Q: What sequence folds into this?
């Protein structure tokens, strides 16, 4: 169980698959041939992510704002703080993850939103989605290597490597394209019987279990030709997992509790590092023995339940009002757009 827990960070890739799937699904619901209001789209996306992220920034700034760490060896500089507030932090190594723990994934998500209109215009069927998936997998490694060259000398080599191969949009792009492929499979009417979905679920999990939880690379021809990063291969395993859930709604994983946790998951994600430390201190104060696998499972259950309760508060006080504000603003002023909604033909 402790070994399985080391793969927790890969939940980010699952989030990206779900994000791309849901974004394309939302755009599909517009009338055929209708235009997509770019202003409306970006207002809603910004309101969905920025307010809670800014709250997290204000909470974490006094804790990590001047503290040297792996993510900022000399402590976050003014540039790092400014880029984080602007949500451009995943374009500078020492800004990416030095203030808001895990906040790098939000910056990558914002980059995806920036390119999404182009993807919607270009990717109109399953074949185009599969081509995009292949292109993303093929380009991911060269792009991350280029980033390492571009940022060489800005900070420590090991941080630059981590930034380029994990925290950057090129490194995570294959996960988004997996979500786009899943959307077009869903739209084409692909469905799975619960038995086939269960097999696919376990195949995906087994595939992920075979991959080391690091940023190493798989090689061919005696290590002379780079194939894919382990990160991108992990995304394929997650695609199998996500496909089983999406294409078979009758799976037990599709339930009200899971959907609710998903609803407040953004808040839960941003507070989870701080919340884990609180739960850890509380369990020690109570004298609970959480050693070994049983202790790990107990600690996880306690953290998820109490963390979800805390996330419910921030979701209702911060996220929902921001979402409602964006809806009112977009309803008052709509400007037609410059690209068509997703085509209705596969």
A:
């Amino acid at each position: 169980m402790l070994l399985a827990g080391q793969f927790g960070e890969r939940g980010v890739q699952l989030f990206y698959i779900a994000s791309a799937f849901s974004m394309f699904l939302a755009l599909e619901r517009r009338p055929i041939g209708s235009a997509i209001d770019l202003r409306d789209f970006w207002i809603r996306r910004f309101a969905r992510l920025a307010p809670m992220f800014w709250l997290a920034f204000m909470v974490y700034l006094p804790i990590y704002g001047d503290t040297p760490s792996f993510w900022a060896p000399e402590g976050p500089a003014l540039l790092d703080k400014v880029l984080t507030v602007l949500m451009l932090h995943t374009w500078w190594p020492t800004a990416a993850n030095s203030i808001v723990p895990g906040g790098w994934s939000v910056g990558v998500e914002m980059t995806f939103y920036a390119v999404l209109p182009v993807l919607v215009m270009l990717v109109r069927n399953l074949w185009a989605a599969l081509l995009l998936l292949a292109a993303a997998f093929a380009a991911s490694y060269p792009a991350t290597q280029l980033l390492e060259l571009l940022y060489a000398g800005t900070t420590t080599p090991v941080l630059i490597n981590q930034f380029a191969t994990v925290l950057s949009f090129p490194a995570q792009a294959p996960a988004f394209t997996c979500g786009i492929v899943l959307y077009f499979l869903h739209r084409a009417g692909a469905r799975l019987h619960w038995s086939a979905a269960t097999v696919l679920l376990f195949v995906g999990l087994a595939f992920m279990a075979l991959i080391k939880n690091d940023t190493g690379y798989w090689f061919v021809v005696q290590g002379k030709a780079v194939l894919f990063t382990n990160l991108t291969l992990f995304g394929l395993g997650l695609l199998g997992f996500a496909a089983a859930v999406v294409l078979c709604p009758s799976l037990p994983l599709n339930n009200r509790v899971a959907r609710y946790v998903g609803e407040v998951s953004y808040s839960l994600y941003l507070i989870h590092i701080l919340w884990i430390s609180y739960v850890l201190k509380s369990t020690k104060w109570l004298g609970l023995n959480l050693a070994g696998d049983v202790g790990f499972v107990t600690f996880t259950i306690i953290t998820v339940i109490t963390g979800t309760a805390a996330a419910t508060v921030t979701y209702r006080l911060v996220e929902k009002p921001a979402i409602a504000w964006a809806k009112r603003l977009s309803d008052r002023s709509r400007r037609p757009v410059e690209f068509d909604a997703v085509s209705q033909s596969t």
Residues 1 and 53 are 31 Å apart (CA to CA). Confidence is low (pLDDT under 50) at residues 213-227, 337-346. The longest helix spans residues 292-332. The two ends are 42 Å apart (CA to CA).
